[in-house]
Design a protein that fits this description.
Two copies of one chain form a homodimer.
Chain A: H1 3-29, H2 33-45, E1 48-49, H3 50-56, H4 61-73, E2 77-81, E3 89-93, H5 95-102, H6 110-117, H7 121-139, H8 141-145
Antiparallel strand pairs in A: 1-3, 2-3
Helix pairs in contact in A: 3-4
The structure holds a DNA duplex (30 and 30 nucleotides).
DNA sequence: CAGAAATATTTTGAACTCAAAATACTTCTT
DNA sequence: AAGAAGTATTTTGAGTTCAAAATATTTCTG
C-alpha cells in the first residue's frame, strides 16, 4: 500500500471517530457536533451573518442554514433581518442557547483531549503542524482555483 | 485558542476538503468517494460479505448497504446470497465495475498526492505517523468495547 | 426436532453536507 | 429613477452516515 493511501485510511478512521462522537453528543445533550460548533462560534464572535458564520466553521452557507433551522426550532438561536442591510440575516444566541452551551460536553472526546494533553509540548506541536500541513495541501487549490474558473480548465489535472 | 481546539479546526478543514473532492469525483466520473472506495475494496479483496466490507472501509453495515444499492443500480456490482450460508450476501464486481474502476480518478486530489509525494521520506513518515496517532487516540475506546474481529476476509483491523 | 440464541443483512428515521437554482435586497449606471 | 449587476440567504435535490428496529438464516440446546 502506498503511503498516501495509508494517509487516507488514517483520515477515514479520524472522520468516523468524529462522526461517532457527534452522535454520542446528541444522545447526551441533544446537540450534534455541528450544532454545538455553531453555537460556540456565535458565542465567541457575537451576532453574525450566515455567510460569516459559514466561513468561520468551514461549512457551506446552505449547510449552515439547515443547522440554524434546527437550532431555531429548539429556541437556542434567533434569526433577524439586519435593519441596516435587509439582505442580511443576523443570528444571535438566546438565553436557552447560552444555557445549553454552558452545560454542553466537549466537541472532541474527553479521552482524546486527555490523551493529547498528556503528550509533551513538542509532540503536540508536531501533530498539530502535521494536520495543518495536510489541511493546507488539501485545500490549497481553493486559493488559485477560484479566479481561474473562466479559462477552459475542464481538461485539466482531474479529467477522467 | 487551546491546542486541541486548533486540532479540531485543522481536522474540519481536512474533512471538508475530502468531501469536496468526493463531489468533484462525482461530477467527473459518476462515482462518489465512498462508492469508489467500496469498488476498490472489492477489487483488492475479492468477493466479500457486507459486514466484512463495512469493517474494511470503516463504515457501518447500514451505510454500506445504501452505497451498494446505488452501485447495484448502476450495474457496477452484483449481490448474491451465499449458497453455503444463506444469511450472507456476497458482493462481486461486474465487468462494468472493473471498467469503471480502471478509468476512475484517485480518491485524494491529484495535487495533494503530488505535493505529498514531493515531501522527503522522513516528512511523509512524520505526517503519516501523526495521523495514525490521532486516529489511535480517537478510536482507542472501540478496542476495549469490541473484542478482536476474527474474519478470514479481514487482514488487519483497519486495512483497506 | 422445536424453540432459543446467535449472526447477517436490510429498513427506518434523522442529521449532515454540498452545488445550483431561486428569492430578496442593495448598490451602481445611465 | 429604472434597470443591471452584485451580494446574502434559502430552497431543492441528491448522497452519506449512523443507531436501532425489523427480517432472514443458521446453529445450539433441551
Amino acid at each position: 500500500m502506498e503511503r498516501h493511501e495509508e494517509v487516507l485510511v488514517a483520515l477515514r478512521r479520524i472522520i468516523r471517530a468524529i462522526d461517532l462522537q457527534s452522535r454520542q453528543l446528541l444522545q447526551r445533550s441533544g446537540l450534534t457536533g455541528p450544532q454545538l460548533l455553531t453555537l460556540q462560534a456565535i458565542l465567541r464572535h457575537g451576532p453574525l451573518g450566515v455567510g460569516g458564520l459559514a466561513r468561520l466553521i468551514n461549512l457551506s452557507q446552505g449547510t449552515v442554514t439547515t443547522i440554524l433551522d434546527r437550532l431555531e426550532r429548539k429556541n437556542l438561536v434567533a434569526r433577524s433581518r439586519s435593519t441596516t442591510d435587509k439582505r442580511r440575516v443576523v443570528v444571535t444566541l438566546s438565553a436557552d442557547g447560552e444555557q445549553a452551551l454552558a452545560s454542553a460536553p466537549t466537541l472532541l472526546q474527553e479521552h482524546f483531549i486527555r490523551a493529547f494533553s498528556e503528550l509533551s509540548d513538542w509532540e503536540q506541536n508536531l501533530i498539530l503542524s502535521s494536520l495543518q500541513r495536510v489541511a493546507g495541501m488539501m485545500d490549497a487549490y481553493k486559493l488559485d482555483a477560484a479566479p481561474v474558473l473562466e479559462t477552459d480548465e475542464l481538461n485539466g489535472p482531474f479529467s477522467i
